[in-house]
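Teaching assistant here, posting this on the class forum so everyone can see the example we discussed in section. The complex has two components, and the goal was to see what a joint structure prediction looks like when all of them are supplied at once.
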Amino acid sequence: MELNDANLQSLTEFLRKTLDPDPTVRRPAEKFLESVEGNLNYPLLLLTMLEKSQDTVIRVCAAVTFKNYIKRNWRIVEDEPNKVSDQDRTAIKANIVNLMLSSPEQIQKQLSDAISIIGREDFPQKWPDLLTEMVTRFRSGDFHIINGVLRTAHSLFKRYRHEFKSNELWSEIKLVLDTFALPLTELFKATIELCQTHAADVNALKVLFSSLTLISKLFYSLNFQDLPEFFEDNMETWMTNFHGLLTLDNKLLQTNDEEEAGLLELLKSQICDNAALYAQKYDEEFQPYLPRFVTAIWNLLVSTGQEVKYDLLVSNAIQFLASVCERPHYKHLFEDQNTLTSICEKVIVPNMEFRSADEEAFEDNSEEYIRRDLEGSDIDTRRRAACDLVRGLCKFFEGPVTAIFSGYVSSMLGEYAKNPGENWKHKDAAIYLVTSLASKAQTQKHGITQANELVNLNEFFVNHILSDLKSPNVNEFPVLKADAIKYVMIFRSQLPKEQLLQAVPLLISHLQAESTVEHTYSAHALERLFTMRGPNNTTLYFTKPHLSFLNLNLFFKAIMRSFSLLQESIVPYIPTLIGQLTHKLLLVSKNPSKPHFNHYLFESLCLSVRITCKANPTTVSSFEEALFPVITEILQNDVQEFLPYVFQVMSLLLEIHSNSIPSSYMALFPHLLQPVLWERTGNIPPLVRLLQAYLEKGGASIAGSAADKIPGLLGVFQKLIASKANDHQGFYLLNSIIEHMPPESIIQYRKQIFILLFQRLQSSKTTKFIKSFLVFINLYCVKYGAIALQEIFDSIQPKMFGMVLEKIIIPEVQKVSGPVEKKICAVGITKVLTECPSMMDTEYTKLWTPLLQALIGLFELPEDDSIPDDEHFVDIEDAPGYQTAFSQLAFAGKKEHDPIGDSVGNPKILLAQSLYKLSTACPGRVPSMLSTSLNAEALQFLQGYLQAATVQLV
Amino acid sequence: MAENAGLENHRIKSFKNKGRDVETMRRHRNEVTVELRKSKRDEHLLKKRNVPQEESLEDSDVDSDFKGQNVTLDAILQNATSDNAVIQLSAVQAARKLLSSDRNPPIDDLIKSGILPILVKCLERDDNPSLQFEAAWALTNIASGTSAQTQAVVKSNAVPLFLRLLHSPHQNVCEQAVWALGNIIGRWCFFRSAVCVCVCVCVYIILTSACPGDGPQCRDYVISLGVVKPLLSFINPSIPITFLRNVTWVIVNLCRNKDPPPPMETVQEILPALCVLIYHTDINILVDTVWALSYLTDGGNEQIQMVIDSGVVPFLVPLLSHQEVKVQTAALRAVGNIVTGTDEQTQVVLNCDVLSHFPNLLTHPKEKINKEAVWFLSNITAGNQQQVQAVIDAGLIPMIIHQLAKGDFGTQKEAAWAISNLTISGRKDQVEFLVEQNVIPPFCNLLSVKDSQVVQVVLDGLKNILIMAGDEASTIAEIIEECGGLEKIENLQQHENEDIYKLAFEIIDQYFSGDDIDEDPSLIPDTTQGGTFNFDPASNMQTKEFNF
């Protein structure tokens, strides 16, 4: 590529096309540029264009293209060809600094980025004159140029802040210091002087203050690894000036913007960081300056307003004080009672106040509010900084600080009492103050684990928290309600049990509150309380009797009441309603920001489907017609928030079909097996249910037209079975496969299924797993016969069948719960006892009577609900994190399914009849086995069954 | 040897999983040889010793002459080349006196006047020891100035003559020569850049060959001229204390510099002398002797072994409790360097009951001593399990933790290493002991410091503690969460440094995600190309017999 006008012209045209909104124009142009970027002079053509083109848009476009080109190609990777010719490299390095400095800001930024990318590779060895070239520009006097240099230097040096020390790194820093430190210092001094000369010229000041901010950032980078000799020798200059800048104010630089931090704030924040760096790392050298900085920063805090734009500055400043006040040798700076009082009064309390910005978040951006307030992502907030300062001060001054704040708390509560409507924010601050003062250590699992003994948490609860919880109007003062709920939640390990019990029904009533924060907190608090453990950690803190008075359905009852009102009148309007609902759904799926709204939307969809299809099942197709496009779109765009709902709606629709599966569903089937869906816990229950519906309605279709998907389906089973939390879902799926798939379609997979189950049984069995396992093997036995079960076990490992009988079935079957599950086990075991020859005449025979005894136990004895100590929580179905808990749709519910059905009315009778059949096949053996080892009680029960079935054993 | 190598190998292997190898655990005091900081610590050694004017009877008459005559530089210069021995002596003496004045001796003026060659010439005058003495004294004081002034002396070809003077039968002359050499060697070692020039000139003039390199080569050049033997021969009971101080001071300067260290033979020659000097009651001599040992022990395991073999260690260790801080500091550095060596070398120090001195060092009012003491211990906790146990048995763990919590930043940093190393080399019960001593809160506190390396060391340590805890990991995780450590680790997932955020992510992922380890890794299916989980009936995953 020659450096000539023709090439410039043609490149310009291609660049212009890359800006075209039409992809058929844009894409080829982009492709072309990519194809020529390996050519000699290509980067130089771009540089020429960004310098000389008449069209500003083309200039900027060339700059961006150039930067991206550098980013992709500059690094020389070992064993790969050099993608930029040496000639171009040299030319670029020779010109780029000049070009950057003489370009307008938009282009300057791109080139500055490009320089730092090149610098990262080439500086210092392969670009030795870069620094000197930059430093000479300091003398230009043109701050547009100077800021360009500073910005570039900042992007080159900022990695010193996080890289590990090494000889290589330190040599580079030393080199930088040798050329850069002195000119930077001179520039710093000169800039400050210029600020004084131009104190009345706002435009000049703006430029100068950006320089100062950049200089301060460079200071931070250059001083990060260790204290350089140069800066130690010049500490006086730097620190005196930093101190001066901290205390400086200039009306001209104050901005009217409430949100965005201005230049003054940015500069001062950086200076706070610089001071904090020195205080932390170079304490010995910095000691003489520290008290001055403490005073200056403190004054800064006292005089800074509540606007959001000051947040970063204030939190940086408070964090500085917090880190200094807990050092033993600075204790004296804070010790004085007046100092402490004034820090508490003027720094801490004002920054704990609930601001209008917080109020807005509480109302309009509840997720963000919750994340900050509850989950501790409030690192840079003022409240958080103030809270850290309280903790820091408490290290040495817990008594005095507690006393000072007690006064404040009472006075704020007093204000509130005078006029709650007006002064509720005072109470909020009081609660926050008590919380931050009292909490010394905290975990998710237990809340606050260590509290300040000087704060009477129970008294505060009784006098100030309970009243808010008890207030009959749950929607009044939602912030205070949320505070009160949070108080219960975080101090749950500190408050007496009777108080918590008193709080539980109150928390439930807050589930109905309109405020998202409030009802989310209640749900969260309840969940936390119910999972609390007793002192020995093995039992739940609240046992069933404690909570028997509760009606947990309260919440859903409230919703259902409003829906059932609709029920009678809704049917005629369904077509219109569906249209509107799907339209709404399409809209919100673009931005699913309001979880509760979404939830209700889906609830109403489900309710519409149910009400209509109950009357006329054929209407399901009109729903499908309306909903499938939206559903497909949601699936394609992977709208995570909606997927659990969509699966439930699909299940509901599919279950309405009578024994066939529409092709529209089959088309979606492969998508449901995608691993990414199964990585999200919230998807698992609704997806399993949906797959079960697929199997129930279309087991044969799958075996026929989608047989290649069977490994993927079983793969899902395998994925679920690997997890203690989800294994029962895996069994649901497996049971459906056994029940509904044609046997020949899965015959080749059976052995591996059992191997996996045995593996899990071996490595990490839990009670839940065993229960599900027992139900499954008995279902298998019912479906395929006892011989098939015995054979497959023994084909995996000799005598396996006996081992499973002896070690798993006989001792554990008593634990199986649920009438359907018990029935499956009873029928399955009956088959093993009576239809399996190897039980009669091999070494398994010794297990025959114990197995019968276990079966009679299953019929007659109470269920064994004991659970080993270490797995209390595994057993809670769909353990509620609030995400999943809320996506369970009440109106998409599923009916109970009994795979055995009416074919076996009474399993006891079946047992009696089967034994009779067996006894006639081998006369004399059955009675003799019964009389020798079945215990008397069991025998008596058995006689009863035989009588009821009117049979007699022979 | 073979056995040792095996052991070493084993250790490296056993550390593999814990992320740090022996090399990085045993840390020399300055892992990075490039320094950004001002070098302050060794200043006392480098201070030039100008020999001040002492009022003495001998001098008084010359003095009055000198004052009376109001001698000019020109006159001195002229007289110093006089054939008249008396005039010449008094001129050289006058020059020396000018150079010995307390404030601003006119060194540059004298150099400019061209007196150097004259003074150097006087050094050759074996027939006139007084003249040699005065000339040496004058040259010493010139060499005590700036590096350029030292360089001027070197240029004047004085070095070989000074060395020659070491053999002079006249003690005052010898002493003066030693003094001057000290200044020169010291200067060379300190001003490395200047040294280069010095040597160039030196070698050019004396050996008419090219400049070989920088500092240590100069030292070795002087050594090669044979300075050591005559120097050491001065060490005998009759030597005056002031002279012995100077001899020791030159020895320190000979031992300095480790790139490369002084020649083995020289070290072998010097060590017996140091073993004698370490008994000396004079503080200056003692301090210099111990610093010399600290330099020698800073030169790699081979040199450490030579020091150990000299038998000096049992006499070095008790100096840790010397009443002079200067002695303690130097001794701490020397033993600290030794324990950067192998486990066996470390054990030699431990066998001298070294740990009994540490309660005092760890509570010493000087922070620098605390810091070096913790550094020392960090290299013991990097050792074998018996050595770790020795630190525990000496009751030092709570004190290290105290420094971890309350020390100044440098000390906290060393304490972080000490703890982290222990989590790597310690047994389960040793790490448990650490946890019982409540190490976690102050350890976690360091996760927010502005030093990537410390953050990494702490994360490593926490991860090891969690691994070691086995089934109890959740208890440890809870302690970490309670003290605010979890939050800090969470924030580190945003750290700019890749190693740090990966480590933080790993810890969160393994110990803080969900209540327990949910999935059985051996059962999780692979994902196929086609985008489903792979259920492979042929995989036959059963590896061992099932037994429930």
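For the discussion questions: The longest helix of chain B spans residues 171-190. Residues 480 and 486 of chain B are 6 Å apart (CA to CA). Think about how each of these relates to the inputs above.
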